[in-house]
């Protein structure tokens, strides 16, 4: 017994160390994306059309456009209309400034050739632009100067990419568009955008290895640790006391309370997701700037340029989405097994409150992106508040911080999200967990006549929790790699039309309802009524008897089960309808 | 019950004061959060010289957002483009204005054609100042 207990942890430690080593090895090359950017090739003659790859990249298209449209005035290397360039480009016509002299093809009457044309490349050039977005805005609106507004948005992005390339500030590997351009400075060379995939994969692999090593260790553990050694068995010397994590668990619980197929592990999973959200949210706070001008830009910065920023942001996003799913599953489990029956009625209400808080946290967090993707959801969501009779106006101002959505709204939502709602949710969560134990643990069948009903120790319980966390952690990381969190162009002044007008997925059913009519009735009363009905279930409907607890679909909870199943189907149906009819 | 002791009196007073304190704090919190830092939106917009707007055209003023219809012989008609349902900006589609959020439809002059909205887009007053500029009044 003794040698086993000595060796197996060290085997596990070895495996874990191997995992860590891989993880560190991959960490070094993971900084920066190793993509070879196909550059348009310029031949010896500066007037020749650049040779580009097939199909042309965004940068290639930019080079072609520059050659065809911009080069005549701005020079082949962006030097501006210098004397040398006029000589190279126009030869004997170099001193001709009149209409149709250099640009006979320009519509409709030709134009006076400008005398002064700014240089575009080199130190200190493009001085008036801070970000690629500003440069794009100028190019799109003002160029070419003889036919302003003739560039399409795609063409303007292509030219902007080429200008950045001339100044050596174009990040490799991501197409330039409104989703990233605000975070790209024109004058400072950026690290290439961060590629978090190798690191994330290594992290997931390390988790898998650690978990396997730990499982091996546990499987080979010779004998179960006794639940609570009798007083006489205590070894002499320092008394054995559980560490803090074990202390948070009861010494032993009936095995019936800890069956996966009964609890689904959903409650514990929700706690784990809350922890992930707290950690990743804290990390995001180091970069996030809650002002209307900077918010979306700082999100772009986190997502594209901060090392591992995309991993952190995606983990935060997916944990939040999964929290809604997992919490809903947890609630359905409690209703479909009748676990809400007294004495757990109050804790059921606490759980329902937590679920509503999770939805509010998700919505406020979604708004913090402050880009075109959230604009209409924010407008409709806050106007719903204003539609409430009498108190609506005041409530709207309380939440929004102004008579209309504006800069104050962002600061309010930031505070709601990271402090007020989080604080309340954290408090209620601890209360909820405390009440589980106070109410006698998870609902389970009453003790049988068996003299020693099977029990599991706190060590087993923690083991199961850790296993769940490992599995969830691996799934989260994989989701973060393959499904990036959404982004859109920053909100700037007038709304760009035809942007995303969908509500976040968990409110799609409300949006679908709202298409039918009165905002107050359908957007406020109906959701509040759903929560109210759920809250009243343990107080008004017949509850399962003690003998019926601990299993699915007890007969005496039938009314509640049918009611909730119908509600669920209606909500899912509305959501599907909204998702399908874009 | 018949006897209201000194202890009862003290308890009642203390509870009363506690309640009062709670209500006052809540009121204080609401007052604290009621300040509006952002400036109110402008009550009128200068739309520039009237001659810029050709007869029988509809101009979408996206920054307000509003639409201005010039009907010829110096008759102007303007209405807001904020949907009366839940405040999204309606989009011009052929001869109608449609809300992208919940699908309300208004005709070319902002009159309600199809819900969920209950009201037409609000008409806005247009006047002309001494310089011949059109002024749009938001209320």
Query: What is the rounded Rg of chain A?
Result: 31 Å
**How far apart lie the N and C ends of chain A?**
64 Å
Overall number of strands of chain B: 10
Mean pLDDT of chain A: 81
Structural class by helix and strand composition of chain A: mainly alpha
Radius of gyration of chain B: 27 Å
What is the CATH class designation of the largest domain in chain A?
Mainly Alpha
Question: Which CATH class of the largest domain in chain B?
Answer: Mainly Beta
How does CATH name the architecture of the largest domain in chain A?
Answer: Up-down Bundle
| Outline type of chain B | elongated
Largest β-sheet summary of chain A: 2 strands, antiparallel
| Amount of beta strand of chain A | under 5%
The helix-and-strand class of chain B reads alpha+beta
User: How much of the sequence of chain B is in beta strands?
Assistant: 25-35%
- Level of helix content of chain A? 40-55%
Q: Count all strands of chain A and give the number.
A: 2
The SSE order of chain A reads: HHHHHHHEHHHHHHHHEHHHH
Q: CATH superfamily of the largest domain in chain A, please?
A: Cytochrome Bc1 Complex, Chain C
List the helices and strands and how they pair.
The complex is a heterodimer of chains A (582) and B (139).
Chain A (H helix, E strand, L loop, with lengths): L1 H26 L30 H17 L8 H8 L41 H11 L10 H14 L30 H23 L24 H4 L4 E3 L5 H4 L2 H20 L9 H11 L3 H28 L8 H23 L7 H12 L5 H9 L6 H32 L16 E3 H25 L25 H7 L4 H22 L17 H23 L2
Antiparallel strand pairs in A: 1-2
Helix pairs in contact in A: 1-6, 2-5, 4-5, 6-16, 9-11, 10-11, 11-12, 11-16, 12-15, 12-18, 13-14, 17-18, 17-19
Chain B lengths: L5 H27 L11 E6 L7 E5 L4 E5 L5 E5 L10 E3 L2 E3 L6 E2 L5 E3 L8 E6 L4 E5 L2
Antiparallel strand pairs in B: 1-10, 2-3, 3-4, 4-9, 5-6, 6-7, 7-8, 9-10
